[in-house]
Amino acid sequence: MISSLPKRIHHIDVVVHDLDRAVERYRKVLGVDPSPRESLPGRGIDLARFRIGETWLILVQPTQPESPVMRFLEDHGEGFFHMAIEVDDVESSSRNLRAQGVRLCNDTPRIGVEGWRLVDVEMDETFGAMVQLVEVGED
Amino acid sequence: MISSLPKRIHHIDVVVHDLDRAVERYRKVLGVDPSPRESLPGRGIDLARFRIGETWLILVQPTQPESPVMRFLEDHGEGFFHMAIEVDDVESSSRNLRAQGVRLCNDTPRIGVEGWRLVDVEMDETFGAMVQLVEVGED
Prior knowledge:
Chain A has three helices and eight strands, in the order βαβββαβαβββ. Chain A is of the alpha+beta class. In chain A, β6 and β7 form a beta hairpin.
């Protein structure tokens, strides 16, 4: 059944300067082993994931100057980057938001790791806490 | 069974200047109705909660000058405040972290809404993204 209700906090991204150091610290704090390090060259990031319940906690290190994540890190410092909320149909949910006047960063979903289909809500729509919609297959 | 593994992202707090405005916006973006507004005078906050999957997304407005949340808002602006990770036994988990050299903000759990028992990890232990341990009953 296709529902327009959000299903879960699918992932939370934390942006850091040094992925290896952050992974070691989070492994200690969480008591959970991370996934192997991954790269998304098109986005200019390396990342590692920790699974907590139904949510991925993802540490992200930007690797390319002038990329959106590098600019976020330079402007805001290390810390929370965004939370991604899973929906059944990201295009349909995006259309609904636009129809209500909510501004989005991209019209066509970006593709993340494992083919996740991502649409970003403009940061000032959600009072500084960036929200992303994500449609995923099984994981 | 008592497990030392984290069970879920129990809640994510977002700190805002104006709770009523933020609640209206998040209601639109999430397509979910919030809980009634609540107050925690001892902590100096008002809050409203949205349920997403197994996680509470909580909007928090500080109401008292000099309180920790007000200082965070003044220093960092609106946005993500912390994520709380559910554990079975917050005292046991805190002892384990301390034994590994992870610094915590409080030795005795603070009490949140609905009797949640909370211990905060020092912010610089987790690269700017504040992590909290929480032990809860049923919810």
